[in-house]
Amino acid sequence: VQLQASGGGLVQAGGSLRLSCAASLRPFSKYIMGWFRQTPGKERDFVAAINGGSSSTNLADSVTGRFTISRDNAKDTVYLQMSNLKPEDTAVYYCAARWSGSFYETTRTRTRVEEYRYWGQGTQVTVSS
What phi and psi, each to the nearest 5 degrees, are found at residue 89? Predict the structure, then answer.
């Protein structure tokens, strides 16, 4: 199992980035996918999650209105579109996967690190002020 995150970089405050995470999971559409972020010395925090059918998404309060999570099951890829970035969004961003077995499982409760079994290597996002 491999999750390959990409798309991180350095951006000015107010700018945008799109993170991608390509997965080798099969069937990809039966996994809940999530994004988390972590800064040095702190715990890994939930950012966003999406179910297999894209009918349920969940965003942390701190990113609601600025970030969007989506997926393309034909490409086995999940995305995190980040807009109006702020310096406090600076972190290493990780994609994660949790077996669901369903297209329709709610993501409302899938916000904890321990809910996800598979993790990518992380991609650095740095937002300058």
Answer: -85, -5
